[in-house]
Amino acid sequence: MRTRFAPSPTGYLHVGGLRTALSAYLLAKQSKGTFIVRIEDTDRERSVPDAVENMLTALHWAGIHPDEGVMLEKGLITQKGTRGPYIQSERLALYRHHAQELLKSGHAYVCFCSPKRLEKMRTEQEARKQAPMYDRTCIKLKDEEVQRRITSGEPHVLRLKVPRNEIIAYEDEIRGPMSFQGHTIDDQVLLKSDGFPTYHLAHVVDDHFMDISVVIRGEEWLSSTPKHLLLFQYLGWKPPRYAHVPLLLNKDRTKLSKRQSAVSVEEYVQKGYLPEAFVNFIALLGWNPGTTQEIFTLEDLIEAFSLDRMQKAGAIFDTEKLDWLQGQWIRRLPAAEFAKRVLPVVAEKYPPASRDKDFTAKTRLIQERVTFFSEAPALLSFFYEEPTPSVDLLANAKQKVSHEILPKILEELSNTLDGVLTDEWTESVLSETLKKLAEGNGWKIGQVLWPLRAALTGLPYSPGAYEVAAALGKDVTIARLEAARRLITQ
Fold first, then answer.
1. Which one of 20, 143, 159, 243 has the minimum C-beta count within 10 Å?
2. Backbone φ/ψ region at 109: left (φ over 0), alpha (ψ -120 to 50), beta
């Protein structure tokens, strides 16, 4: 199987584009086939410098590596394969040749209508509550007049001649049987006045010569599919199979937009999402594995993915689910790998961390609590600077630690822990010791643990009190409890 992803270089890679690329990649890998990246840059006005490099970088970040076509090698854009070039602006002669073939066979015609006339026509159609489409004014022109006007240099385009009385039908890989009435299909522009093809002609020619098996794209292209099927028919070629994936929606079921969510992959990279988590999330947008499994590696997806389990309805882009998956993937990292990944972030704020031989042991305390690596410095701060807890933090109404009882709890904590031998200073011993302290005073364990943890870390959220005390050691623990006692007497 040969699949392709064919973005236009009009900006950063859209999350919807990544989902399309991922689906095409998974199908190709399932069949030991070929995944191709092609650049559709014939819309010159909308092309953005560096967009190709940015999109390829995003694909590689996600683990989606092209087998053929346009790709990055050592940071440079290159093309590989025997069916190139894979950049449409380098294939113009091919498109123009087939446009002329369509003209000669009577399946296309020349149109001289100006943009001003077309705009006026659309405005009038909308006023009459008609679907805007070309009124075929130029289809009636005689060959002699067409040639004369072309020779005189009059701007013109080439349009597809859609048969008005036919029904164009096909079987969509996701949506099942689809059919379109010819009179509802516009005579699409195939070749623009600047000699560049539109997407409609160019992608048909490319998909044929690159032998594409399945075209996966968003449902917004569904209404254009009959035009593409006609082009394959008129050019005498077998069309690929088509699969139209559902739209991505905001939580309010409106189309995903910048107003409510980040829409470029680059934004999620910058926010610190793991590629494994983001790809896992993107794969589940509109696809149901048919099981309760939610965590998928790329290898899992290659094995499990199928178009017949794609839904037709729009898929909700739920960032809460994305954050949950991010947390799950953080937890799956080996402890040493997690430490390696957070070290640069922590060392930037706390340089001693780069020389800390116990850094991995310390990061083990926070791995279950981190969603993004950027959270690590704050969660590890108590290892590298003295905490400054407030009295209100040391006391806690939910844990029934009142301001009145707080001095007694801190005093008992300090005296009790001072009696623990240094060589017995472990989580298990501390746990047993503090449980006895709570029971002996008629306190709940939370009344003991909350002020201890707050005194040791100065944070409202942190690893557990036993873990922190064991990691800091006896001397530091006692010193911070004494500092907390002094604080509440000021």
1. 143
2. beta
Torsion angle defined by CA atoms of residues 115, 118, 120 and 121, in that order, rounded to the nearest 10 degrees: 180
CA 257 to CA 423: how far, in whole Å?
Answer: 59
Measured in whole angstroms, the distance separating CA 126 from the mean position of its chain's CA atoms is 37
Q: Which tens digits make up the pLDDT trace of 310-335?
A: 999 999 999 999 999 999 999 999 99
Q: How far is CA 124 from CA 112, 113, 114, 446, 482, in A?
A: 19, 16, 16, 74, 83
Record the tokens describing residue 423, joined without a space: 């060589």
Residue 141 and residue 192 in one domain: yes
Domain identity same for 368 and 431: no
Known catalytic residue: 258?
Answer: yes
Work out the burial of residue 136: count CB atoms within 10 Å of its CB; fewer than 13 is exposed, 13-18 middle, 19 or more buried: middle
Q: What CATH number has the domain bearing residue 269?
A: 1.10.1160.10
Same domain, 326 and 352: no
Domain count, the chain: 4
* HEC-encoded secondary structure of 137-203: HHHHCCHHHHHHHHHCCCCCEEEECCCCCCEEEEEECCCEEEEEEHHHCCCCEEECCCCCECHHHHH
Of 384, 416, 448, the position where a domain reaches its end is 384
Q: Which residues pair with 76 in a beta bridge?
A: 73
User: Which one of the listed residues 104, 258, 357, 398 is annotated catalytic?
Assistant: 258
CA distance 116 to 187: 18
Spatial contact of 487 and 389, defined as CB atoms under 8 Å apart:
yes
What domain range is 361 assigned to? 333-384
Give the count of alpha carbons within 13 A of 132, CB side only: 9
* Residue 239 belongs to some domain of the structure: yes
Cα(36)–Cα(1) distance, rounded to whole angstroms?
A: 11
In this structure, is residue 11 part of a structural domain?
no
- Say whether both 226 and 119 belong to one domain: yes
| Residue among 481, 420, 479, 422 nearest 449 (CA) | 481
- Are residues 403 and 315 located together in one domain of the fold? no
3-state secondary structure of 310: strand
With respect to residue 67, please indicate whether it lies within any of the assigned structural domains.
no
C-alpha span between 209 and 205 (Å, rounded): 6
- Is the pTM higher than 0.85? The answer reads yes
SS3 330: helix
Which strands sit side by side in the sheet containing 214-218, from one edge to the other?
76-80, 68-73, 34-37, 2-5, 214-218, 241-245
Average pLDDT, rounded, for the chain: 94
167 within domain boundaries: yes
